[in-house]
């Protein structure tokens, strides 16, 4: 399986290089100045949820610079859902496939036809460098994307994001600066629709959250199971939040995390020593039944409803993942559970406390963006008690 993945990655990169090389041999894209008042603007955002949140200042500033323009977002389903309530976007188009996919030729042909029909004046690639060739085929006059990519010859203007490890919202604004505009740094923003608020309330009520109950949101998951915080520790954290802050804890996660809590309970019960260590020794008087302190909502909320649930939370405890950036952009009190190997976004949001899990072996054996051990030893080093202490600090600062 690993060999097949390496072969696919190699051919994918080879095709990107070949298309970029062909474009360069044909003379490359001709840089032209942007229209003073473009009528139709395309913003490409097809990245992860957290990266999309950090790219929202680009939309805010594009609307400020071009108040009369029709701005369209090109994204995958999760990108479009995340920004469904953004009033600065006039239209959203869900990309049927990512360019250079081997199995989606019909869908990609449909994407090409749609791009040609829209007559965009300007296209800004925030996330989705592989779309550059499609924008060139559509003959969009001004095409802006990240420098250094294999498809850079397909672009008319390029911008730098610095190190891929450390870029944030300020670097994506370089897309507009590359066109000669003066743009100041701005913080990420998100918008929540009333419909999503109502849907989140109804869904959580169905799951057992009484109306008016104050709650915390916990998200121990990551882009791969290797990078999850041990899910069973959420129960000990929830008991602490119930006892100290009278908060119920809502466990959230995507459809792929449904059942993770129950599976973790089974694993802990199979190893009694791990059970005592990870759940903590709670006094019988202070311990609350799991149903009173914790509500499992994994896979139950769509993305707009997740935004609404986070918006109303008293505090959010999450790994370095999409919900971390969602909570930060919505200004919620926030506790981040990070690997010490990946601390780059630890200071991104003002109302946050970030814990860095450490393990000396990781510094020697693991890559910056890839863990060798499963679960990650650095995430495993963070206890429920440390997370509860950080919540105590952030809620004390809030009060």
What does this structure look like?
- By secondary structure, this protein is an alpha/beta fold.
- It is 42% helix and 15% strand.
- It contains 18 helices and twelve strands.
- The protein has helices spanning 2-25, 49-54, 56-65, 77-82, 105-118, 132-137, 169-172, 174-177, 194-207, 233-245, 260-270, 272-279, 290-293, 303-311, 322-329, 360-365, 377-380, 384-398, and strands spanning 40-45, 70-75, 91-94, 122-127, 142-146, 157-159, 215-219, 248-251, 294-296, 315-319, 334-339, 352-357.
- The strands form two sheets. It has a six-stranded parallel sheet. The protein has a six-stranded parallel sheet with strand order 9-8-7-10-11-12, sandwiched between helices.
- α9 crosses α14 (303-311) and α10 packs parallel to α18.
- The radius of gyration is 23 Å and the shape is globular.
- The protein starts with a helix and ends with a helix.
């Amino acid at each position: 399986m690993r060999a097949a993945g390496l072969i696919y990655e190699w051919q994918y990169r080879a095709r990107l290089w070949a298309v970029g090389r062909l474009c360069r041999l044909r003379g490359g894209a001709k840089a032209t100045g942007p229209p003073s008042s473009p009528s139709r603007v395309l913003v490409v955002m097809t990245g992860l949820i957290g990266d999309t949140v950090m790219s929202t200042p680009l939309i805010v500033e594009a609307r400020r610079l071009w108040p009369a323009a029709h701005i369209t977002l090109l994204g995958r389903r999760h990108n479009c859902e995340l920004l469904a309530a953004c009033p600065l976007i006039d239209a959203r188009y869900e990309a049927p496939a990512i360019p250079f996919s081997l199995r989606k030729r019909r869908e990609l042909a449909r994407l090409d036809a749609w791009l040609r029909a829209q007559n965009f004046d300007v296209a800004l690639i925030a996330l989705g460098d592989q779309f550059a060739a499609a924008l060139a085929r559509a003959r969009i006059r001004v095409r802006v994307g990240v420098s250094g990519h294999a498809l850079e010859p397909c672009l008319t203007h390029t911008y730098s994001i610095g190190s891929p490890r450390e870029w944030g919202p300020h670097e994506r604004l370089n897309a507009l600066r590359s066109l000669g505009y003066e743009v100041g740094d701005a913080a990420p923003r998100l918008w929540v629709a009333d419909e999503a608020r109502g849907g989140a309330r109804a869904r959580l009520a169905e799951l057992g959250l009484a109306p008016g109950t104050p709650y915390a949101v916990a998200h121990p998951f990551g882009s791969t199971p290797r990078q999850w915080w041990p899910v069973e520790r959420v129960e000990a954290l929830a008991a602490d939040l119930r006892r100290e802050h009278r908060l119920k804890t809502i466990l959230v996660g995507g459809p792929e995390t449904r059942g993770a809590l129950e599976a973790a309970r089974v694993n802990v019960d199979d190893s009694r020593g791990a059970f005592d260590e990870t759940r903590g020794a709670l006094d019988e008087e202070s311990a609350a039944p799991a149903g009173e302190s914790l509500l499992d909502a994994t896979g139950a909320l769509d993305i707009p409803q997740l935004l609404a649930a986070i918006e109303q939370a008293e505090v959010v405890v999450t790994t370095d993942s999409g919900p971390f950036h969602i909570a930060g952009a919505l200004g919620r009190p926030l506790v981040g559970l990070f690997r010490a190997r990946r601390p780059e976004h630890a200071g991104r949001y003002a109302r946050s406390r970030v814990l860095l899990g450490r393990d000396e072996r990781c510094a020697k054996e693991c890559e910056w963006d890839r863990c060798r051990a499963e679960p990650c030893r650095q995430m495993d080093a963070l206890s429920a008690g440390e997370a509860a202490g950080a919540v105590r600090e952030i809620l004390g600062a809030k009060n």
